[in-house]
C-alpha cells in the first residue's frame, strides 16, 4: 500500500489503521495504517537531509520540476478529478475545477515568488545594497478535506519553489487524494526528500506539529485545531506559523433590482461545495422591505430546487454529498439547536439517505435568536437575519471573532464604500459571490480566521525570509573618518 512517502520510498504505516469512505455510498475507497512517531521523525530527517541541496539547486531547475508536475496534472486530470470526487462526494464538474486550480497554481506562484520575494539591488556610495530571500528550511504542511488537492498544493508549491523541503500531513478523510498527488510529483522527477508524505489521524498530526526539528508549519483547517497549534507554537518565535482557518462569513443584501441575480449570488455563496468552503456565507442579512421579501421568497424556492446528487451523475448536480455521514448529521443537529434557541426553519436541511453524506440545503431565520453562538457551521445551512437599518446590519455582521470573507449585494455604490470602510474581513466583495477567491490575490482572514499570514498570492511571503545585505568587493577606508577616530 502506497501510504507514506519518505525519501521517495513508499512505506506502509506502523500506526493505527484508518479508512477513507466514499460519502456518496459508504464504500471504503482507501485503507491504510497511519504513520507512528518514528515514521514522522524519519520523514522530517529525510526533509532535513535534502534541504540544503534543494535550496542550492538553481531556481530554473526547481521550476522545471514544478512545470513537470503541471504536465502530470494535465495528463492525469480526469483520473485525478474522479479520485477527488470519490473521496469527498463533490460533483465531478467541481473536482475538475479543483485540478484546474492546482495546475494554475504553479505559474502564479512563480510570478509571486519573483515579485514578492525576488532579489533587488540598489546602488549606494562605495557599495551595493541587496534584498534577497532565503527558505526557512523544513516545513510541515497540514491540509483540510474540502479541497484536498488544491489547498495543500497552495502551500506546497510556493514552499518548495522557495527552497524549503516539506513534510505533508493531509486530512485523514482524504488519504487517496494525497497519495495520488505524491505519485504525480514522483513522475515529475521530484528529488528524494523534497516532499515527504505522512498520513494518519490526530496522533500523526500531533507528532509532526510538536516535532522540534521543523522550522515552520503551514496549516489550512479548522479554527479549533489552528488555535491549538498557535498555543503550541507560543514561545517559539524562531518558527514560522501560517494559519488559514474558518469563518462565520456575512453577506448583506440591500436594494437589488435584479432579484434573480441576488438569489444566484446568495446560493453560490452559501451552498457551493455543500457549504463546505471556508469562504461560504453563513449569515445572510436581508432588509425588511418589499425588495428583501421578494429576494427571500425567490431564495426559498430556488433552494428547494437545488439538485443534490451523486458526484458522477450524468446530469450533474449543484451539490454532492458532504464529506461524511457524521458531518451531515452534525448539520442536522446544528439546525435543531438553532430551532430550540428560537430559529424558524424556512427550508429544512435534511439528511437525504442514511449511511451517506447527502443533505438538502437549508435556510433558517435566526432574527429572533438572542445570544447567538459565534460558530462556523461547515455545511449548507444559511442563517437569515432580517434587518431594518444598514448600519445595524453591518454591526451585526462584524459581531464575530472571525473575519475571513464578507460581501454586499447592492445596486448603490455609496452603500459599498460605506460597507468596505466598516466591515472587518480579509476578503470583501461587492455584487459577487463571496466564495471562489482568486489564487492571484492574497487569501486570508483576520481574527479567529488567521494569523496575518495570508495565503494564495501572498504565500510567497511566509515561505521565505528577507536578508538585507550591504556589499563591497573590497574593504575601503572612508575618506572622512568619524570624529574621534584616528587610524594611522
Ligand atoms: N481559511 C482557509 O483557507 C480554509 C479553511 N478551512 C477550514 O477547514 C475546516 C475544515 O477542514 P478540516 O479538515 O475539518 O480541519 P481540521 O482542523 O479538522 O484538520 C486539518 C488538519 O489538521 C490535522 N489535525 C487535527 N487535529 C490536530 C491536532 N490536534 N494537532 C495536529 N494536527 C491536527 C488534521 O488531521 C488535518 O490534517 C473548516 O473549519 C474550514 O473553514 C478550509 C479550507 C480553507
Ligand atoms: O488558495 C487559493 O489559491 C485561492 C483561494 C481559494 O481557492 N479559495 C476557495 C476555496 C477556499 C475554501 O476552501 O473554502 C474559495 O474561496 O472558494
UniProtKB/TrEMBL annotation:
Record field: catalytic activity: N-succinyl-L-glutamate 5-semialdehyde + NAD(+) + H2O = N-succinyl-L-glutamate + NADH + 2 H(+)
Keyword Oxidoreductase among UniProt keywords: yes
Active site: 244, 278
EC number: 1.2.1.71
Main EC class the enzyme belongs to: oxidoreductase
Residues the entry annotates as binding NAD(+): 221-226
Any Pfam family matching the protein: Aldedh
NAD listed as a keyword: yes
Domain of life: Bacteria
Keywords per UniProt: Arginine metabolism, NAD, Oxidoreductase
All residue ranges annotated as the Aldehyde dehydrogenase domain in the record: 10-461
Pathway: Amino-acid degradation; L-arginine degradation via AST pathway; L-glutamate and succinate from L-arginine: step 4/5
UniProt cross-references to CDD domains, sorted A to Z: ALDH_SGSD_AstD
Stated family: Belongs to the aldehyde dehydrogenase family. AstD subfamily.
Function of the molecule: Catalyzes the NAD-dependent reduction of succinylglutamate semialdehyde into succinylglutamate.
Protein's UniProt name: N-succinylglutamate 5-semialdehyde dehydrogenase
Organism: Pseudoalteromonas carrageenovora IAM 12662
Amino acid at each position: 500500500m502506497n501510504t507514506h512517502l519518505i525519501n521517495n520510498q513508499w512505506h506502509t504505516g506502523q500506526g493505527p489503521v484508518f479508512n477513507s469512505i466514499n460519502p456518496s455510498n459508504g464504500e471504503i475507497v482507501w485503507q491504510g495504517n497511519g504513520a507512528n512517531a518514528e515514521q514522522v521523525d524519519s520523514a522530517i530527517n529525510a526533509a532535513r537531509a535534502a534541504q540544503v541541496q534543494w535550496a542550492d539547486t538553481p531556481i530554473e531547475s526547481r521550476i522545471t520540476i514544478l512545470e513537470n508536475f503541471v504536465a502530470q496534472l494535465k495528463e492525469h486530470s480526469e483520473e485525478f478529478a474522479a479520485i477527488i470526487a470519490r473521496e469527498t462526494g463533490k460533483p465531478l464538474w467541481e473536482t475538475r475545477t479543483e485540478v484546474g486550480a492546482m495546475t494554475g497554481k504553479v505559474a502564479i506562484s512563480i510570478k509571486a515568488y519573483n515579485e514578492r520575494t525576488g532579489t533587488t539591488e540598489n546602488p549606494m556610495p562605495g557599495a551595493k545594497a541587496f534584498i534577497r530571500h532565503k527558505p526557512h528550511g523544513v516545513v510541515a504542511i497540514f491540509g483540510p478535506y474540502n479541497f484536498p488537492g488544491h489547498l495543500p498544493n497552495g502551500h506546497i508549491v510556493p514552499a518548495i519553489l522557495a527552497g524549503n523541503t516539506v513534510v505533508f500531513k493531509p486530512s485523514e478523510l482524504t488519504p487517496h487524494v494525497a497519495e495520488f498527488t505524491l505519485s504525480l510529483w514522483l513522475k515529475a522527477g521530484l528529488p528524494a526528500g523534497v516532499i515527504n508524505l505522512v498520513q494518519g489521524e490526530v496522533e500523526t498530526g500531533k507528532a509532526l506539529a510538536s516535532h522540534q526539528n521543523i522550522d515552520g508549519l503551514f496549516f489550512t483547517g479548522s479554527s479549533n485545531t489552528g488555535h491549538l497549534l498557535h498555543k503550541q507554537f507560543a514561545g517559539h518565535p524562531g518558527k514560522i506559523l501560517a494559519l488559514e482557518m474558518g469563518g462565520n462569513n456575512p453577506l448583506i443584501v440591500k436594494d437589488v433590482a435584479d432579484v434573480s441575480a441576488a438569489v444566484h449570488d446568495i446560493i453560490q455563496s452559501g451552498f457551493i461545495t455543500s457549504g463546505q468552503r471556508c469562504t461560504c456565507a453563513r449569515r445572510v442579512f436581508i432588509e425588511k422591505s418589499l425588495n428583501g421579501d421578494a429576494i427571500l421568497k425567490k431564495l426559498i424556492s430556488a433552494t428547494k430546487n437545488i439538485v443534490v446528487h451523486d458526484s458522477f451523475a450524468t446530469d450533474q448536480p449543484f451539490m454532492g454529498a458532504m464529506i461524511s455521514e457524521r458531518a451531515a448529521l452534525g448539520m442536522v443537529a446544528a439546525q435543531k439547536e438553532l430551532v430550540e434557541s428560537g430559529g424558524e426553519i424556512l427550508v429544512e436541511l435534511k439528511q437525504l439517505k442514511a449511511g451517506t453524506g447527502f443533505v438538502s440545503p437549508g435556510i433558517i431565520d435566526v432574527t429572533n435568536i438572542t445570544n447567538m453562538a459565534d460558530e462556523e457551521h461547515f455545511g449548507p445551512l444559511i442563517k437569515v437575519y432580517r434587518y431594518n437599518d444598514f448600519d445595524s446590519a453591518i454591526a451585526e455582521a462584524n459581531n464575530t471573532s472571525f473575519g475571513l470573507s464578507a460581501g454586499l449585494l447592492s445596486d448603490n455604490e455609496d452603500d459599498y464604500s460605506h460597507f468596505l470602510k466598516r466591515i472587518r474581513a480579509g476578503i470583501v466583495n461587492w455584487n459577487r459571490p463571496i466564495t471562489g477567491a482568486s489564487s492571484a490575490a492574497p487569501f486570508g482572514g483576520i481574527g479567529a480566521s488567521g494569523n496575518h499570514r495570508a495565503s494564495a498570492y501572498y504565500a510567497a511571503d511566509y515561505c521565505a525570509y528577507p536578508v538585507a545585505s550591504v556589499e563591497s568587493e573590497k574593504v575601503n577606508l572612508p575618506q572622512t573618518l568619524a570624529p574621534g577616530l584616528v587610524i594611522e
